[in-house]
Amino acid sequence: MQLVAESNVDDARRRSPAPGSPDRRPILSGGEPARPRTRVALSGELDMASAHQVESAITPILQGRPPTHLDLDLAAVPFLDSAGILALLRARERAAEVGCRLVIHNPVRTVRRVLQIAGVDDLLLGSVAADHPPD
Question: How far apart are alpha carbons 14 and 25 in whole angstroms?
Fold first, then answer.
């Protein structure tokens, strides 16, 4: 997983695989902690192959002077499996340990549905879940 500043998002997209081949590397952007709230955008599939990278990428944000809120934007995450769910739950737990509230924002319909089926949507989406009725 790569941590990319918002201004470098286009550069990260240029390094993507050739058209037609899936990009399975999650990319984080906006990781510079801005207190009291930090927004991080993930892109790519969040699965067994990439889930361990979520903790590695979020750890530096939570060290030192962590934000009070960590907003994970999943708008560009088309797929999430049980390993991805576990990574998000661990990140939430780690954030809570340092007094930070982690909330998922903008999940695509399929990702939101997986979170609902797993019964973790209320934990991870917070009040965002109320904005999206069940499918």
Answer: 13
Q: Which residue is it, tokens 């995450």? A: 77
List all residues 6 or more positions away from 70 whose beta carbon is below 8 Å from its beta carbon. 37, 38, 40, 58, 61, 62, 95, 100, 101, 102, 103
Q: Do the Cβ atoms of 89 and 120 come closer than 8 Å? A: yes
What count of other Cβ atoms lies within 10 Å of the Cβ of residue 76? 16
Between CA 121 and CA 112 the distance in angstroms is: 7
Domains and CATH numbers, the chain: 2-131 (3.30.750.24)
Mean pLDDT in runs of 10 for the chain (135 residues)? 29 40 49 70 94 89 91 94 96 95 95 96 72 43
The conformation of residue 51, written as its DSSP 8-state character, comes to T
Cα distances (angstroms) measured from residue 122 to each of 4, 45, 47, 50, 56: 28, 22, 21, 24, 24
